[in-house]
Design brief:
By secondary structure, the chain is of the alpha/beta class. 55% of the residues lie in helices and 9% in strands. The strands form three sheets. Strands 1-6-2-5 form a four-stranded parallel beta sheet, sandwiched between helices.
């Protein structure tokens, strides 16, 4: 029996290609079937051949030195690769996957083995779309291939199409590695000489594999192995397969193509019309029989204009949109492009797309091997009484109780891993808040099994997997000190002390070189809270956290002194960073042996620098005042009055006050001379100057709570002949301040126009 080679180049998840594969298997009766898929699964094909219900996917993960990777190889009932696997095995052929494993470096950065995103926009495709008047590759594919066609003309069309595609898109280095590996499999199968060989591969690779020759000494190459790699079978869903949900491979609208596979191109449109109308009516959308007839007539008319013998997906969608959408559309119809639809898409169109996407979720056979993480997760949920029931329920936890704190850690690990069904509703963002309680919603989720299996790439137990997930986040955080601070808090909630130590080391290294005062301030604020107050999770008084605070404090002072910009507007986050520096000095200086004299000298220099941003000058004064730097309150108030008078310009005064009020709010309320000076300054301002200063003044006075604003009003009102008892009424303003400001600006513009046309008296300085 001789060996003959039969290459079937396919588009992933194409019913037409799946039918061609099925026809080829029946016609050729091959001895070998080689499929583009992960060769490391060849020893485990029995798992795939169990009685599953597609869609499903192979989830592969790799965590090695300096590299982490996760990706999916999805299959649905109409995937050509799935048909080749199941029907080839049923026919008695020797079936093999022939591609590199998904965790191999050739797939670095590839989240989906069957992705075709880059090749969807080639020049050949663009020219064909323009020539045929079609929008996008999906409409082109349906027009050329998903129409009723006999196998032989379909195969010839595919061959010509893929050769044109390959001719303009040469393989890159990763493709070359993969194709060399696949070619070796084809040559080895031909070398057996015991029967026909059918190869099912992405059409881009088909022209290369068709050139395979017979080498008598060829053998099947061993699949690469790595102890750090894991691959498990997971349930998948039509939603995850759908291009409109972000999936970058194969066909969109999987429910439509499932109907095409089940019933053929002539009957599938009727099934989808029924499914769409049912969905719309279930959601309260009125769809009449007349609407349905209009959609059908429009779709059939479009199909005839486009030369289709059966309705395509686009014909049907265009017909539905024409009949059902009564108003003008704000954005293009989603199926004219790819990817997640615009948020401005008409809601009715969104429901139509969801009907074409479908709700199907795959199911694995009960004998499918399960990763250790799934067993460990189920064990912890049982042990802690957290198993989801039939209905959602709320779990309330008191974090100061050790047993409930352990429950919290289990739930936080699930949250970090992104496992559906466990949602944190309330709880502290830091373990230092006064109320240490959490509430969670525990609910059943169809995706639970798939998500836990996919999370197994981070570790075999729930604790290790959650820690692995945060370790990956640690690598991704890079030098971002604020993100590192968040990770430190997460590690405390998980109870991952060793990870916390690693994050602390990374933060300490970055704190000495952090270039951004805002990020450093956010991290310092968080660390100071943990160091001072965290009895719950073990960070209070920690020498490691204290060392980090000292390093960040020293760096923060240096960054503060480098910031110049006499016209820079107040930045609330920069002021927050100055507060963190001040609080560190106030609460940690003696224990951590911080250089208080150096810190006060920095604040003094910033206060006196004419090149410093006004808000930071005010913040420096506020820091000194709140740290009792001056001999007494009278001296402090006098210094504040002098410094405030020195910046009494409309463009700077509000920013200066924002910094001062942010750092010394309580001291300012007790300083009547400063209040009266500010009242005089504001009263002497022109309307134009007031409008210039107003945004910064609003920020500045926004730092006072209502009680303190009332105290300031009580001090000022008698100077204007008003009763102090009126102060509280002044705190309420029915109008939006932004509207008042806009109205004042409009009044000013009206007066200018009137003066320009001589309709009122001109003011000095007006142009003639």
């Amino acid at each position: 029996m001789g060996a003959s080679l039969h290459i079937v180049g396919v588009r992933h998840h194409s019913p037409a290609c799946a039918r061609l594969v099925s026809h080829t298997l029946r016609a050729v009766r091959p001895r070998h079937v080689l499929i583009e898929g992960p060769a490391d699964m060849n020893a485990r094909l029995g798992e795939l051949l169990l009685a599953h219900e597609p869609p499903l996917a192979l989830f592969s993960s790799y965590r090695g030195e300096g590299r982490a990777h996760a990706s999916w190889t999805p299959f649905c009932a109409y995937s050509p690769e799935w048909v080749a696997l199941t029907e080839g095995h049923a026919a008695g052929a020797e079936v093999r996957f022939m591609d590199l494993p998904a965790w191999h470096p050739a797939f670095q950065g590839v989240r989906n083995r069957y992705g075709d995103g880059e090749r969807r926009h080639g020049l050949a495709i663009q020219r064909l779309c323009a020539r045929l008047g079609l929008e996008g590759m999906d409409a082109l594919w349906d027009h050329l291939f998903e129409q009723p066609l006999e196998p032989e003309p379909l195969a010839e069309r595919l061959r010509v199409y893929f050769e044109a595609l390959r001719g303009e898109s040469p393989a890159d280095g990763e493709d070359t590695q993969r194709e060399a590996f696949m070619l070796a499999h084809v040559e080895a199968a031909l070398a057996r000489g015991d029967g026909p060989v059918v190869v099912v591969c992405g059409g881009f690779h088909a022209p290369v594999l068709a050139r395979a020759g017979t080498r008598p000494d060829a053998v099947f190459p061993p699949a690469p192995e790595d102890a750090s790699a894991r691959t498990y079978l997971v349930p998948y869903s039509f939603r995850r397969l759908d291009a409109f949900s972000g999936y970058d491979s194969g066909m969109p609208s999987p429910a439509f193509y499932q109907a095409l596979w089940d019933e053929g191109p002539r009957q599938a449109p009727e099934r989808m019309l029924r499914a769409t109308v049912t969905r719309l009516r279930e959601r309260g959308q009125h769809v009449s029989s007349a609407d349905l007839i209009a959609a059908t007539v429009m779709a059939e008319g479009l199909a005839r204009l486009r030369g289709h013998t059966a309705l395509t997906r686009t014909d049907l969608l265009d017909g539905l949109a024409s009949a059902l959408v009564k108003d003008a559309l704000d954005v293009a119809l989603p199926w004219t492009g790819r990817g997640v639809p615009s948020p401005d898409t008409d809601p009715l169109i969104g429901e139509v797309l969801r009907a074409f996407s479908g709700e199907r979720t795959g199911r694995l056979h009960t004998s499918t091997p399960r990763p250790p993480l799934l067993r460990d997760t189920e064990h912890h949920l049982r042990a802690q009484g957290l198993e989801p029931g039939v209905k959602a329920r709320q779990v309330r936890l008191e974090l100061h109780v050790p047993a409930q704190r352990e429950k919290s850690r289990v739930l936080h690990r699930l949250r970090v891993l992104g496992i559906s069904g466990f949602q944190r509703d309330t709880g502290p963002t830091l373990p230092t808040e006064s109320v240490l309680q959490e509430t969670w919603t525990v609910a059943p989720a169809e995706t639970f099994l798939a998500e836990v299996i996919e999370a197994s790439g981070w570790g075999p137990t729930l604790e290790e997997a959650a820690r692995g997930r945060l370790e990956e986040a640690l690598l991704q955080a890079g030098p971002d000190l604020s993100r590192l601070a968040l990770l430190l808090t997460e590690s405390f909630f998980l109870g991952a002390s060793t990870l916390a130590e690693r994050v602390l080391s990374a933060m300490a290294a970055q704190a000495r070189h952090e270039p951004d005062l805002t990020r450093l301030g956010q991290a310092l604020e968080r660390m100071l809270l943990l160091w001072r107050h965290d009895v719950l999770l073990g960070a209070q008084g920690s020498a490691e956290v204290g060392g980090l605070i000292a390093a960040a404090f020293e760096r923060g002072l240096w960054l503060l002194e480098q910031l110049d910009g006499p016209t820079q507007a107040a930045d609330a986050e920069q002021l927050r960073a100055v507060v963190a520096l001040r609080d560190t000095l106030r609460f940690a200086a003696p224990v951590l042996q911080l250089d208080e004299a150096q810190a006060r000298a920095v604040f003094e220099r910033r206060l006196g620098s004419l090149q410093a941003p006004p808000a930071l000058r005010g913040a420096a004064l506020g820091a000194l005042w709140s740290l009792a730097h001056f001999p007494d309150e009278a001296s402090a108030e006098a210094a504040a009055v002098r410094a405030t008078r020195a910046t009494a310009r409309p463009s700077a005064q509000g920013d200066f006050l924002a910094g001062l009020f942010r750092l010394a709010r309580e001291q300012v309320v007790r300083a009547p001379n400063l209040t009266l000076m500010l009242d005089e300054w504001l009263g002497a301002m022109s309307e134009e100057d007031f409008l210039v200063a107003l945004p910064a003044l609003r920020l500045a006075f926004g730092f006072f709570p209502p009680r303190e604003k009332e105290a300031i009003a009580r001090a000022v009102l008698p100077r204007h002949g008003r009763e102090a008892t009126e102060a509280r009424a002044l705190l309420r303003m029915d109008e939006n301040p932004a509207d008042v400001l806009a109205g004042a600006a409009l009044d000013d513009e009206v007066r200018r126009v009137l003066r320009h046309f001589g309709l009122t008296e001109k003011e000095p300085g007006d142009a003639p």
